[in-house]
Structures are given as structure tokens and as C-alpha cells.
Automatic annotation (TrEMBL), chain A:
The chain crosses the membrane at residues 12-32, 38-54, 74-92, 98-124. It is found in: Cell membrane. The keyword Translocase does not apply. It comes from Fusibacter ferrireducens. It is a multi-pass membrane protein. Pfam families: MnhB. The keyword Membrane applies. This is Sodium:proton antiporter. It comes from the Bacteria.
From TrEMBL, chain B:
It is found in: Cell membrane. The keyword Transmembrane helix applies. This is DUF4040 domain-containing protein. The chain crosses the membrane at residues 26-43, 50-68. Residues 7-71 form the MrpA C-terminal/MbhD domain. Pfam families: MbhD. InterPro entries: MrpA_C/MbhD.
Amino acid sequence: MNDHSDLISKTLPITYPFVLLFGIYIVVNGHVTPGGGFQGGAVIASILILKYLIDPSVETSLKKIRTIEKLALLLIFLFPLGFLLTFIHLQFPMFNCSYLILMNLLISIKVACGMSIIFIRFVFYETR
Amino acid sequence: MLKLALIVLIILAIFTIQTQKMRHAVVYLGAFSLTISFVYLLYNAPDVAIAEAIIGSTLSTILYLVALQKYKIFTVYYCLSEEEFKDQSHLTTEHLQFNKLLDKYCAKQELEPQIIYTVDNVDTIKAHHQYALIVLNESSHITIWGHPENYKLDSIIAFFDSEIHFKIPIEFIKVEEVIE
């Protein structure tokens, strides 16, 4: 972790797309198989840890992630209100599945951003 | 299978408490988390198992390891004479360059440098204080004493050797362990 290892920095970037794909799989299939927004978001957030293990000196900016997180929270509040209060789920029952997937995606974005913020703050900013 | 996993859980928990080194305890805790996520899976709760495996054994383990890394304090004593301490004449460009290099090294190794300026003698610091490095800054010559338990000393020597544009010769002295 403290010494920059060639083996880690060359082999770990290969696993980036697989981790991302696994996280998206968990999120999108969350309503039929085990998993869901929270678990998938946590998997996606672990990409940031991979990045830290590969090169600890690169700092990531917090502001963008914070904005995305707030936006996701706002959408999480707005979508159920718009969906349930207008009674779309009774008139068009075929939209229910896509609604679940959308909510899972939003929650996963929120969780991934939140865990990234925890990790970045802890690793790069906190000193004792 | 379930009973075996539960027994392994108890053994790992005892290991976690009983180890002397913090780092080993963190690793045992990660193994504990992984085993308990397997137990959740056997209890037909795959959702909880995924969350436990990711958060318990990956995120928290790495956070603990980083915290341990940050906790290590690297104490550096600068020995000055009394006149230097009063009129700040030690702040030459070479000294500032040396400080910058030391900061760079500490950032690279993720150490927390704690720099103390004293007017004490080198021998008194060696005898009475906890230190990692003692720096004696004379004109055109720097002497560094390293603590016997300071396992970073070799990498510091290698680091300063690799910095070619730093002109001042540095003498490294490894303090022998005092047998009492």
C-alpha cells in the first residue's frame, strides 16, 4: 500500500470493467435476484478503492461527487411522488418493472457517491 | 456445514482479540466478516450476505488499514544552537530544501511527520526522548541519526541518494541499540 508496486498497478486496471459490470448486473437484476441498489452501489464504490490501491497519490475532487449525490437524492424523492400520486401504476401496470429498475439505479448512484465521499474524506483529508 | 462455519467464527473472533499486532487483528476481522457472510447465505439471506461481504470484509478492512498507516507518527528532531534558535538564521535555502524533501518522502510513504526544534544536545535526545530521526544541520554538512527500531531508515537513505540535485552531503548514522 505504501510502496508503489508494479505488479498491482499493472494487473488491477484489468479488473475495472469486470467490477463495474458486476455492479451494474446486481443493480439491474435487483428486483428478481438477490441484490439491489445498495449492494450494487457498494460494488461500484469499490472501484474507487481499486484506484487508490493502484496509485495512492492521485486525488479525486469531492465537489462533483457531492453534486451528483444531491441530485440523485432529489430524484429519489421526486420519482416515487410523481409515479404514485398520479396513479400511473394502476392505469399502466407494465411500467412497474421499469420503475423498480429506475429506482434501483438511482439508489445505487446515491450509495456509490456516498461511500466514495466517505472513503475520499477519510483517506485524503483526515489526519489523525 | 453451518456448524463448522459457526465454530470457525468463534475461533476467528478469539484470534482477533488475542493477537498482539493491530494489523493481524484487522486481517482476522476481515476473515470473520467473510465467514459470517457465508453463514448468512446458509440462512437463506443472500441480500445481507452480499452487503456484509462488500462492506464488512472489503471497505472496513481497507479503512482500518489506512487508519493504521496514518496513525504512525514519524518524529523528527532538529538540533539547533541557541543563537540559531533566537535569530532564525538556520532557515537557509538548503535547510528549506531539505525540509521539502523530507515532507515529500513522508507524503510518499504516508507517514505523519512531527517536527520538533530543540536546543538540546544530541546525546540527551537519544537518551530521554522517543525519536525516529535526529537531524543536525551544520553548514555544508547534515548529519542524521536514526533510531534502531526505525525500519524506514534504509528507504530514507535510498530516497536521498536518488535525489541527485540535492547537493549537500548527508551522513547517516545508525544508532546501536543500548543493552540494559
